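Entry 14. Structure prediction run on the chain below.
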Amino acid sequence: MTTTHDALEVYKKAIRVKFEEEKTKEYSSFLLVPSRAKLRQLCTERFKDNDNIDDLKSFAIFFGFEFEFGNKNKLQTATDKFRPIETFLKSETDLVDIEGINMAAVLVDFQPRPFKKFTKLNSDDLVEEVKSSNIGKSKMNELVQNKEKPVFVKNDTTISSKGNLKQKVGIGSLVVLVLFGVKSMFLKEKECMEWKEDHYELVDCESENLGFANTKIIKHYNEIEFNRRELMVCDSTKFFNGDKPIIWYSKKNNVLQFFNMDGENPENGAELKKVSRHIIDKYVGDCD
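Output returned:
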């Protein structure tokens, strides 16, 4: 049975596959060498005639304000919000914020989205899609039973796993391959999470030492806590949604760290507090 963790990883892989295809299409100028500024411009293009309720909701949650074509200046102040999406699409970093992942799906026009809708795609639908595709049922079974991770590349190129599965497929089939690759990608359930620099990553509990002498920050998986990330802030960062703080901080030994949710600092256990104007004025510097 596919877990939520598995499905999220598959969702992210499928978005990256669609990103490779979109680099050759209408908006290639924004995606061939994606940057924060180009992704911001692409965002405007994607939303200017977009009346999809799910997309508009994803935008509002991610940016903290609703999209209007006349609010380009407001979106420009949120340019740094596109940085994790940029590095995610370039495969330089992972992306753990679910709304950020959903925004990446919008930017590359991946369907089905958002993640909630993606998870509703049941196995029967997938089997029917595979049967109607040019992969063929035997190739699907070969992939599912293969214990090595499949290699995914862009549309109309060779896909191989173990060097013996080669087939020319379209983007729809690529997504099916990604979905059915879950079984081989997650043969060993990862039920713990490790804090790495500014986010959590899934790890195998059995292969990690969870004892008190371990210097790694490893906890049993918690769906809410897994979405925590440390934030790099500056004077143009959006700290409030109206009057409501949307960033938390901890201060220990005169060192401030900022996070996207309440709780405790994973690195030192310090209690997080809501950011205030005083903290911003005193400790937050100018953007470079």
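The CA atoms of residues 168 and 254 lie 57 Å apart.
Filed with the rest of this week's runs.
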